[in-house]
Design a protein that fits this description.
With about 280 residues, this protein is of the alpha+beta class. It has four helices and ten strands; from the N terminus they run E-H-E-E-E-E-E-E-H-E-H-E-E-H. A four-stranded mixed beta sheet has the order 8-1-9-10. The chain has a four-stranded antiparallel beta sheet with strand order 3-6-4-5, with no helix packed on it. The C terminus is likely disordered.
Amino acid sequence: MTGKARIAHLAGPNATIQNTPPLVTSNKARAKHGLPLLAHSDGSPARFDVLRTQRLAAPVTVYVEQFSAHPLEADAAELYGPPDGYIDSAGQVHKERQSARDKPVYEVELHPEDGLYPLPYMARQAGGAAWEEECAFPGAPEAKARQGFFPDGSRSFEEIDRLQIGEDGTGNLISAKAEVDFYRILPPSGYTKGLLADHRTDTGTGHIRPESRGVDFFPYKPPFGPCHQRRPAALGRQQIRRRHLDRRQPTSRRDDLLVQFVDRHDGADLRQCRSAAARHDQQ
C-alpha cells in the first residue's frame, strides 16, 4: 500500500478556483524594450515586479546572498557553515574574500527539470506593446484575448506543491500525501488549437481536437457572450465513474476518493466522498 489518498479533480465551468490573475508585462521587460513602466495609483514607481511561475529553458547558475532568507539569519552567523564564495564590487566570484566589501554567496545550479520558478513576466504582444490585461486592448474580441483559466487542475496543484511551505519548512504538500488524477469533464478553458496526446496533463488518451468556447469549455471571463452556461453535472459524474473508476485500481491500494467539483463562481465545491472501492462493489 502507498498510504496516500487518491484524489480525482474535476475541473468545472466558470471555476474561479481555476482562474488566474492576468499576465501583465513586467517592468524589467518594459525597461528593456522602452515601454512605459508600471506605477502605483499615486504615480510613484512600482516597488517590485510581480513574479509569475515559469519554466527555465536551459540550466543557469545563480548566486544567492548569504543570510538573505530571513532578517535574523546573520544574527546566528556562528551556527552556519562557510559560503560557496564571495562576489566583489565588479561582479567577479572568488573562493576567498578579497576585501571587506565582498559579499558572501551560495552558488546554485537551476535546471529546467527542477520545476516552476517565480520570475518576472517578459512577454509582450505581437505588435510590441505590453500586456496590461488578458485582452490585447479593452473590449477586444475573442480572437484578441488570452485565457486566464487553467484547462485542468494540474497546474494549480503543481504550483502548490512547488511553492507552498508546510509548518515544518518542507514542501510538496499535495504529492507527499495524495495521488491526483485530473479530469476535464467540465473544463473552464480549452485548447483552441488542439493538443498532442503526449502534452496532455489530464487523465485521458489521444490528441485533443481544437476546442471552442461555449461548446467544449465554459469560462465566464473575458465576457464574449453567453458562453459560461453550465453543463449538467450529472454527465460529468457518469463519465468519470464509467470511464475511470472501474479500472486501473490496484487491489493493494487505499482507494479513498476526494472529488473536487469546481463549477461555482465563488470557489470550489469540495466534497469528501465515499470509498471508491466500496462504491464500485455496490454497483
